[in-house]
Design goal:
Elements: H1 26-44, E1 61-64, E2 69-72, E3 75-77, H2 82-103, H3 106-111, H4 113-129, H5 132-140, H6 145-171, H7 176-184, H8 190-210, H9 212-218, H10 221-224, E4 234-238, H11 240-243, H12 266-269, H13 290-301, E5 309-313, H14 314-317, H15 321-326, H16 334-356, E6 360-366, E7 373-374, E8 380-390, E9 396-403, E10 409-412, E11 423-425, E12 429-439, E13 447-455, E14 461-468
Antiparallel strand pairs: 1-2, 2-3, 4-5, 6-8, 7-8, 8-12, 9-11, 9-13, 10-12, 13-14
Helix pairs in contact: 1-4, 2-16, 4-6, 4-8, 6-8
């Protein structure tokens, strides 16, 4: 039993909150531009229009769940074409690998949604509460009237941004102007409100509180990035040859016998991940470049060349300054060529599938019970479920025929005046029909039959192979 004067040993340290300091420079400007562009696309894209004709939605980007369609400008994806979604996911992954092989983790630093929204939340926090030291003092200090209203305003603005983010996401699944107007009329579906509430909370939590923990513990990219890195991958690093031995500096002091790093910790204070880049490349580094801006600003003040912390490769960091000037950064390498070939292959397959996709599809399913019916006149009847996919935005009439059995007769069950020569399917929809095929055949093994579907106006032809059963197995 431990004695009363003994202290409990804690094996896990509490997560320390990070307060990134404001910095200005080339990469901070680039991050602002990336944020403005990506947020502009995200919030405004649902309102873009695309004319597809009178029988289709005119929203340029829309995932129509009730009708099971996905629209992206001129591309329309049906549930039967889920392979397009697979191709898009493969392309996205390979593009990420391709960019990483050349430029490192620039996706994480500039374009990742977690980074973009966290930057936006930190900006709001800085506007209301002040820069790094003021925010830190305010949060760690006692509750006062000033702290209460500043924290309240901060969290209110975070919730407004989170609500706008969630609402914009839902717009991709509904007609955007109609849904926006329904809010003013207080006539919003409970399902839509539930989704917006859930997404608002998740955005508020991830960008307001989790922040760097999402990158470290939730995102798998940080874990396997090393598999895509080599000595020629562009990374952010500290020039140890030039910076060490580090130490404080006063104006007028000589630089003889010491490094250029003055140990000001500016690179640590601006880092949104809270790491010290001088300790070497780390999993947490998202290559945002803010430490580069901070260090360059300090180098300007002490009248030293920029680039103590910079984008470069591991191979070039190991070179002496004279050798480094003669070397170049090999952006496009063999692994980049492999990724480019994969991109070309997958992209080419998808492009070919889009160009050659038929405006209609035919699907045939043979009845299982009964598999056939022997009629009194000696003929045999088989039943089939027919699905006709009309992928155009115009109403179509189709003719269905059967090949492979002599004198086969095709009838539509319960169709009234509808015949196999006049199967009507509305625009951008699926026609369901139950078809009977009757023929006088001898009992024997299942016979192959081919269903042919032709469109009356264009003559487009689709075929589907099935069987005709005349005896029990």
């Amino acid at each position: 039993m431990p004695e009363n004067n003994q202290q409990t040993i804690t094996l896990f340290a509490k997560q320390e909150r990070i307060y990134p300091k404001r910095v200005w420079g080339r990469y901070r400007k680039l991050k602002w531009v990336a944020m403005a562009v990506t947020l502009g696309i995200y919030y405004l894209a649902p309102f873009l229009r695309w004319d597809r004709g009178p029988n289709a939605p005119d929203q340029a980007i829309l995932i129509d769940l009730p009708n099971r369609r996905a629209y992206w400008f001129f591309i329309e994806i049906w549930p039967q074409e889920v392979y397009f979604l697979t191709g898009i996911l493969i392309l996205a992954a390979v593009v990420l690998f391709f960019v990483t092989s050349m430029f490192g983790r620039v996706w994480c630093g500039y374009l990742c949604p977690q980074t973009v929204w966290t930057d936006l939340f930190v900006w709001v926090e800085r506007i209301v509460q002040g820069d790094r030291n003021k925010r830190k003092k305010l949060r760690e200090g006692p509750w006062t009237r000033e702290k209460a209203w500043k924290m309240a305003v901060t969290h209110f603005l975070w919730l407004v941004i989170a609500w706008c983010t969630a609402g914009s996401f839902v717009l991709y699944f509904n007609d955007a102007p109609t849904l926006v107007w329904s809010f003013f009329e207080f006539n919003v579906s409970p399902t839509v409100l539930a989704f917006i509430a859930g997404l608002t909370f998740s955005t508020y939590l991830m960008a307001g509180f989790a922040r760097e923990q999402v990158c470290i513990y939730m995102c798998p990219y940080a874990r396997f990035q090393s598999a895509m890195f080599d000595s020629d991958t562009l990374i952010i690093g500290y020039d140890e040859k030039r910076g060490e031995k580090r130490g404080k500096h006063k104006q007028g002091d000589s630089w003889e016998g010491r490094g250029h790093c003055i140990d000001c910790s500016a690179c640590v204070q601006v880092c949104p991940m809270g790491i010290d880049i001088r300790d070497g490349l780390q999993m947490e580094c998202i290559a945002c470049g803010l430490c580069v801006d901070a260090c360059n600003n300090i180098m300007d003040k002490v009248e030293l060349p920029r680039g103590l912390i910079r984008y470069d490769t591991e191979r070039r960091f190991a070179l002496d300054p004279a050798e480094r000037t003669k070397s170049v950064v090999p952006i496009f390498r063999l692994r980049s060529l492999y990724y480019a070939l994969i991109l070309s292959l997958v992209g080419g397959i998808m492009l070919y599938a889009l160009i050659t996709r038929a405006p209609q599809e035919l699907h045939v399913l043979h009845d299982r019970n009964p598999m056939f019916v022997a009629l009194s006149d000696g003929s045999v009847r088989n039943g089939y479920d027919i699905k006709i996919l009309n992928k155009t935005h115009e109403h179509r009439t189709f003719a269905l025929s059967v090949e492979g059995i002599a004198d086969a007769k095709v009838e539509i069950q319960g169709a009234g005046d509808l015949t196999s020569e006049s199967l009507y399917v509305e625009a951008d929809s699926i026609g369901h029909f139950h078809v009977f095929v009757t023929a006088k055949v001898e009992a024997g093994a299942p016979r192959p039959v081919v269903f042919s579907l032709s469109e009356q106006d264009t003559g487009a032809l689709s075929v589907y192979e099935s069987i005709f059963v005349s005896e029990r197995p």
